[in-house]
# Entry
Amino acid sequence: KQSLVSKKPASICAKNVVKKPVDKKPVVNKVAPFIIFQDPVEIYCQHCGSLRSKSSADHISKSLKEYKEIATQVEDVDLSALLCSEHPPEKYWETIAEQRRVALKETLDENMELCSLVEKLNLEIERLSAIASHADNFASVYYETVRMQEANSNQATRSQDSSCELNRIQST
# Structure
């Protein structure tokens, strides 16, 4: 008996299928523009909402302008071309050092701002904890006063009830 199923199904299918050339579309590399996020210079404090002093806003914008000027000076040099040479020239190391100096300056400035913010927040925490302790003391005194008034009113009610009962007993 011959089996209905062939041992080589691919050869049977290959006879029936007409091969068409595959059109390959060229792959186009679409490079998205690289955008560096920069925080907008805000005049209001993001934490407390108070108006920042003009000098600190000017300081921030001035340091941002300085950074942009330095960054554009550094970008003019093609670092990859310098790095791919057999022995990187001195200009490469100067460029790297300048970039690191700028990054260090930014970091130190940010750290100074954060330190001053931490000091202000610690003072605010101390002030608010003092207010909270005063509020707790006031609440405890208030509740004690309310309890004493309730106790006095309960005693007055009991004494009136007992005097009413005595009057009723005596009148009968």
